[in-house]
Design brief:
It is a single chain. The protein folds into three domains: about 90 residues, Arc Repressor Mutant, subunit A (Orthogonal Bundle); about 140 residues, 2-Layer Sandwich (Nucleotidyltransferase, domain 5); about 160 residues, Nucleotidyltransferase, domain 5 (2-Layer Sandwich), CATH 3.30.420. Helix content is about 40%, strand content about 20%. Strands 5-4-3-6-10 form a five-stranded mixed β-sheet, sandwiched between helices. Helix 2 packs across helix 3. The two termini are about 30 Å apart. The relative contact order is 0.14. The N terminus is likely disordered. Bound molecules: zinc ion (ZN). Zinc ion binds next to loops.
């Protein structure tokens, strides 16, 4: 699979460059950027040997990347090191930065990540958005983004793009929130509400969470299912390092996979969906707890303290997750299932029943289930890194704008 899944996502990775001499030069610039980003600091000679171009060709590319501020020279390599001395190259810690933003049901967040992957500015605002119309919420988000941009600019960075994670279905135009049930948003075009001078991508939070896992997770495979939760349950399917988006961009709605076909009615119109058993509301109800501020923290705290009712509710949620995931695993044969978002914090009590159910029901050896270390930060970081990756994937396009 190559570029098509990302065509409608201008700040997403994997854009195809034309097969012309110009396209070749741009591809080679990208190869240099990716190599230095992954393995730097590196000398020009080391870059040349990594990507199989002559040292002269690499020098021309490197000079261009230094001129446009995407790479920097760290000065002569320390004496005493083996090999010829040369100036070590590193990805610039100034210049373009990726802006990530997140619309949560109970919070808004924004951050700026530099090309080295470091978070350089960050802002969060708490407060529920349930039932609020998109306009005032996005206005507050825009204010957070502006605050982060001002802070980043103070450190010599400028925004190369903005990616926004939302808890809902996003059309393939990467602008329109078609449906966000927990916010009660329908067909909201966010591009009209956000700063027009920064290239924008909007995507489902589960997708950005999965990309964060792919790019930042320790030893994450290139074929995996990422399951996450905030209020609802979402999943993202990563195939050979790319998101599987589906025809309309709605792939991954694991929360609405039926677990018991005659179960309780779900707002989606179905019955007995996974969310009715393993969604936050359902688990709180089963545990006899009231929805409050830090719901996941409360569940974890009670389970930790040995509250049998809470533990039973989480075991049941794990079983329901195991049943729903059995369908997905049998269909897609991923290398692993990764639990992220709020689910990661509850993993100790969800995992045993989830694994049992999955092992009992899947054909062949059970698919390993692991827990994300990024936790609730995943979608925000994934969004910012999507912009950073787009810069590494086509540095020439960004240099033209800078
Ligand atoms: Zn449903």
């Amino acid at each position: 699979m190559t570029a098509p899944p990302h065509e409608a996502h201008p700040a997403g990775p994997g854009r195809a460059l034309p097969d012309t001499q110009q396209g070749m030069r741009r591809r080679n610039l990208a190869r240099v950027m990716h190599t230095v980003s992954a393995e730097g600091p590196l000398s020009r000679a080391a870059v040349a040997s990594r990507i199989g171009l002559t040292r002269a060709a690499v020098s021309t590319l490197v000079d261009e990347l230094i001129r446009t501020g995407l790479l920097e020279e760290l000065g002569p390599e320390r004496p005493g090191r083996v090999g010829r001395p040369g100036s070590a190259l590193a990805v610039s810690a100034r210049g373009p930065a990726g802006l990530g933003a997140e619309v949560g049901v109970d919070h808004l967040a924004a951050c700026a990540v530099d090309l080295r992957g470091q978070v350089r500015a960050r802002a969060v605002r708490y407060g529920t958005h349930r039932g609020r119309s998109p306009e005032p919420v996005i206005e507050q988000l825009a204010a957070l983004v502006r605050r982060v941009v001002a802070e980043a600019e103070g450190e010599g960075l400028w925004p190369a793009g903005l990616a926004v994670a939302v808890p809902g279905l996003v059309a393939r135009d990467a602008r329109t929130v078609v449906r966000a049930p927990n916010l009660d948003w329908h067909d909201a075009d966010l591009s009209a509400l956000l700063p027009a001078d920064i290239p924008l991508t909007v995507d489902n939070e589960a997708n950005f969470g999965a990309l964060a896992e792919l790019w930042l997770g320790e030893g994450t495979p290139r074929d995996f299912l990422h399951v996450s939760a905030e209020i609802g349950i979402g999943a993202a399917v990563v195939v050979d390092g790319l998101l599987l988006r589906g025809t309309r961009g709605f792939a991954g709605e694991l929360g609405h996979v039926p677990v018991w076909p005659d179960g309780p009615a779900c707002p989606c119109g179905g019955r007995g969906c996974l969310e009715q058993y393993a969604g936050e509301k359902a688990v709180l109800r089963a545990a006899g707890l009231e929805p409050g501020e830090d719901r996941v923290g409360l569940l974890a705290q009670r389970a930790e303290a040995g509250d049998e009712e809470v533990r039973r509710a989480l075991r049941a949620a794990g079983t329901a997750l195991g049943i729903a995931l059995t369908g997905a695993v049998n269909l897609l044969d991923p290398e692993a299932v990764v639990l992220g978002g709020a689910l990661a914090g509850l993993a100790p009590w969800l995992l045993p029943s989830l694994r049992d159910e999955l092992a009992r029901r899947t054909a062949g050896p059970a698919c390993p289930v692991s827990v994300s270390e990024l936790g609730p930060e995943g979608p925000l970081l994934g969004a910012a890194h999507a912009v950073v990756r787009a810069v590494l994937d086509d540095p020439a396009a960004v240099a033209e704008r800078g």
